[in-house]
Amino acid sequence: MESQWTIGIIGGSGLYQLDALEDAEWLPVSSPFGKPSDEILFGRIGDVRLRFLPRHGRGHRIPPGDINMRANIDALKRCGCTDILAISAIGSLQEHLPPGHFVAVDQFIDRTFARVSSFFGPGLTAHVSMADPVCARLSAMAADAVEAAGGPVARGGTYLAMEGPQFSTRAESRLYRQWGTDVIGMTAMPEARLAREAELPYALIGMVTDYDCWRSEDESVDIAEVVAQMRANGDLARRTVERFVAALPAARSPSPIDTALDHAIITAPDARDRDMLVRLDAILARHLSA
C-alpha cells in the first residue's frame, strides 16, 4: 500500500480554492464516467501532496443533483489520492450546533433518490460495507485540525442527505429531528458511498451555515444569511486544511478501507462484463494487477 499521503480535498459551498498550495496547477483529469465538476488543482503543502476539487465547480455552477460524483471520485482515484477529506455546507437540526459550528460527521441517512450511487451494476456486482461510512482515523485528525485552527467542532453527528435543490419543508425538518439526525445537506451522498467503493478512506467536515426550518413557525432558511455564513466558514475551512496537513504522520500506515473490495465483488470472474472492467480500471487497479 502507498506509504505517502496524497490527500484529495473536495471543497463544498464556500470553499472553492486553497491558497496555501505550493506549486499549484489546475489540470484536466478525464474519467470514463463523464466530466468531473472542474479541473483538479494539483499542489502540495510541505511534503504532502494535495488534489483539490471544488464540488460545485469554480463559481458554483453545478447544483447538488447534477454533480457527477462518480466522475469526481474516479478522477481523484486516478490522481493517486490515498484519502479524501470532504468539506460541505450543512444546516443544523440541533440547537447545540449553531451557525459557524463544524461537525465531523460519522453517520448518514440517505434520502437522495435521483443519483447514481454505485460504480458497479449489471455485469459486475459488488456490495461494500457502509456500517461505518467514514474513516475514524481521518475524521479524528480532521476534528483536531478544526480545533487547532480555532474553530468549534462536534466529534460525531448524523447527516441527513436530501435530494434538493430546494430546502426542507417544516414537516420534513421536524421529521428528520425525530429520526435523531443532527445536520442536513445535499451533497455527501452518494459521495461517501462511492469513496468506499473506490477504497478511499473518507471523512466529512460539515460547516453549519444556518438552522434548518424546524425552530419556529416564523423562521425559515434565509439564503442571504447562509451565503454570508458560508464565506466566514470558508476562511476557517482553509485554515483547517492547513492544520490537517501539518499534523499528518510522516508515513501513512494502511487503513482497512484500502482493501474494502477484497470480498465485495460477487460476480464470478468468467461472468464479469469486460467493458465494465475497462471502465473501472482506476477503481479496480489493485485487483486487476493482482
Name the assembly state.
single chain
Biggest sheet statistics: 11 strands, mixed
Helix content: 25-40%
**What distance separates the N and C termini?**
13 Å
Explain the overall architecture.
By secondary structure, the chain is α/β, with parallel strands linked by helices. It has a single domain, classed as Nucleoside phosphorylase domain (Rossmann fold, 3-Layer(aba) Sandwich). The chain has 7 helices and 11 strands. The protein has helices at 69-78, 136-148, 170-178, 191-197, 223-247, 274-279, 285-288; strands at residues 6-11, 22-27, 40-45, 48-54, 83-92, 102-105, 107-110, 153-155, 158-161, 183-185, 202-211. Strands 1, 2, 3, 4, 5, 6, 7, 8, 9, 10 and 11 form an 11-stranded mixed sheet that branches. A hairpin with a 2-residue loop joins β3 and β4 (48-54). α2 (136-148) packs across α5. It is globular. The model has no long low-confidence stretch (mean pLDDT 94).
